[in-house]
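Record 1 of the preview.
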Amino acid sequence: FLIRKGGGAPLAECWFIFFDREAVTGRKVSAWKQIIGDDDWRIDKEDPVISMGDNVLSRERSAGNLADGAAQWDFRFSSSSPSMIVSPSFSRSPLLPTTKLTSPVPEGFASGELTVGENRFEFTDYPLNVGHNWGHFHSSAYTWAQARMFGEGKGFFFEGASLSVGSRHLTLGKVLLDGEEISFAGPRCWLNAKADVSIGSWQFEMQNRNWLLNGSFTLDPEYVAGLKYVQPNGRIKSCLNSMISNARFDLSQRRKGGSSIAFVVDGTAALEHLTPDLSQQFEMLA
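->
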């Protein structure tokens, strides 16, 4: 949702991005966007339900279609964990940082169907996340990432970001480890965090009193959705998104003799860069 600076009716945007891992020729990433005027969207805070034209998102369902049916979806989902607010409470003021992170459904499962062009897919209990980045406007630049461990072993979920604040990066994140929340989002964590950011890569070190987290994300340039993000003042930023990225983590307890756990997430992690530079070597799809 976009509240426009200087007045004007708010706008809603509905996006659909599809990554075709099996494509040998043709387009490997497809994206569609619909801009919806003030008279055709609503938010029901009591349910809650978000309706944008024919598209709907509630606590249990997402459904809609874009581009005259080129992208269609209808699925229901359930959550296996409580919501996770990544940004600490004091940073939810309008100023610092301008981009806030939260995951209403960090670890959920979806069942339903979707259609992309002539291809139709049905799925049952497929891993799902519902996330939300918000604020008065986007940070001047950021790198955001998310990963979830599937299969056997400890349950693991990570969400974090390096957000531009002036000339510096503010790096923060949170982990869910078997349902236990481990935060690297307080001011002391910000001061101790380290990050190396480049387009297509994010490496970081985060720590709190009890835990040390080293991580890295990388993406395949062939599987990037280039998107135009409009700011409230009308300026456009370049968003480079890949939902089939790779991630590596080493989570260790800082006490003497503490345990260390390694996690590898291949092809199911999310990595996204926002940059004011529109000259990146990626096609803007929407």
